[in-house]
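Reopening closed ticket. The problem is back. First fold of the pair:
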Amino acid sequence: MSRLLSPAAAADALAAVLREGLDPEAAPPRTAVPVPAGELLLMPAASAAWAGVKVAGVAPGNPARGLARITGSYLLLDGPSLCPVAVLDGAALTALRTPAVSALAIRLLVGPGRPVRRLLLFGAGPQAYGHLAAVCAEREVAEVVVVARDPGRAAGPAAYARDLGVPKARTGTVADVPDADLVVCCTTARTPLFDGRLVAPGATVVAVGSHEPDARETDTELVRRSAVYVESRAAAAREAGDLLIPEAEGAIGPGHAAGTLADLVTGRVAPPDTAVPRLFKSVGMAWEDLAVAVAVHEAARAAGLGGTDAARTLGLTGLTGET
């Protein structure tokens, strides 16, 4: 999909729907359905012009079979008629959408034009590669350090960062946290990846790996000392373990977040001038899938693609006639 829609263009699409007045607080919640192999996630969203739903499978046993842990499809519908328009590969859409959300947050939190001296990336899966591409498209990055549970796997994203033109890229450890001005966490961890006291004042942390109330990548200390931003207060209150666990511990109160992505995009809230860490916690929302799916579909139409040609180019699993 990124061959037709770059992460930066996907971030632009997300910002556009927020500026047009979309309210993430009113977005339908994700539904999780337990199944023998894991769980099915249902994520519907709609606007006047478009509607869509992602059905994602989370199968923890898949990596041992040589298969992706996350599977799924996205059904894009015409809004007025609800007739199907396209079926997109759900995993490919998520691999584009999630880094685009992070790129938009970084665009707003790191500051306009400010280069990244050191990006510390936790993770070595598809989201790690996607986030590298997204961050490098948003900012000039001087150095990338990759930390993974399996140190051997960290070499892959580090090599990819060099391919993207980063002057220095290597593997590392949590000891690299204090010197990072941007930390991106995209792992399947259920407990904190590092001591939040190590994060430098003024650094930005983006955490995208979990959407469950009992799982988190960042610790209570980081949340307590940071200016926190979320996609939606309602979604964070349902799913953001990074915030819900510190709240349950009594370390923060309800509504600890300083603002939302929509607040930042519209200028209702500005990042703090004080030298405190800035934490963006993402759980992934259906309105984001819809915004990016529409942008991909429109890019395909502009390129004159349709039918099976579009399926091959966009990572679509099928494409119906236009409505």
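Second fold of the pair, where the issue appears:
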Amino acid sequence: MDARDTQDAREKTAGAPAGPAGGPGRGPAGTPAVSPGRRLRATGVGAVAVLLWASLALFTTLTGTIPPFQLTAMAFAVGGVIGLPRALRGGGALARGLPPGAWVLGIGGLFGYHFFYFLALRNAPPVDAGLIAYLWPLLIVVFSALLPGERLRWWHTAGALLGLGGTFLLVTGGQGVHFRGEYLLGYAAAAVCAVVWSVYSVANRRYPQVPTDAVAFFCLATAALAAVAHLLFETTVRPDGWQWLAVLALGLGPVGGAFYVWDHGTKHGDIRLLGTVSYFAPLLSTGLLVATGRADASWPVAVACVLITGGAMLASAEALRSARRRR
């Protein structure tokens, strides 16, 4: 456990109610109780990932014709390298001490999501595949009810559904979607993609003892698997100067750095609220494309803004009130 996680544990214990024999209070499944304020701060850290994911479309367009698996391998290599010094401070003890389940979850979540997403794009129209894949925020909210001590209230589900409606408008441009049988494989892959990421995000809560620094190993393993997929399915494209910078930006942000803050948020924050605010990613992404002249502003964007913002406010109202009462 690194210094930051040790400090986190101390803060949790300090903010926990006293348990039997004067010891620190215990939460569900024997985990330390977490104060609402501490949980809200962790949620804010996780939400940084949403801001970073908003730049994914912009940076990806700047990479030109680099194939998706090659791009994934390069970006995740950057994402792994930036966290490797902290992960190796103990001389590899962190990697050796990770539970097997954490390895499976981390690598399966990061690589599995991208593998099935690209498979969906190869076998279905991008709009259809993207809309199905972006069911994951709603699935996170629903699956969170399976966690010990979590309760799914109507405002959480309503907020997530409002966000889904806003995302539907963004992805389709208000034109609707026409699913066709010949794209069944692509639709299925997109659905698996959504399930993989939502299961990873929710199940990550089961490993609060695994330091966020371990994400560096998961990123590097994902980069290696993506490189194998690239060699099997794609032709290598040599990046030029600006494309190298775009790849670096992806690794530092949406396809690398974002997974460190998402790991912290899903382990220690409000998973239901994180699922709902994740719908801001496509909205902010569209805003960046509009601001840089790569997309046009339209009424679906405006309506989506209202729906997603309203959904996030509805889902977060209880958490914000609880944090204010405890101050």
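Update: turned out to be a display glitch only; the data is intact. Residues 1-32 have pLDDT under 50 and may be disordered. The first helix runs from residue 3 to 14. Please close again.
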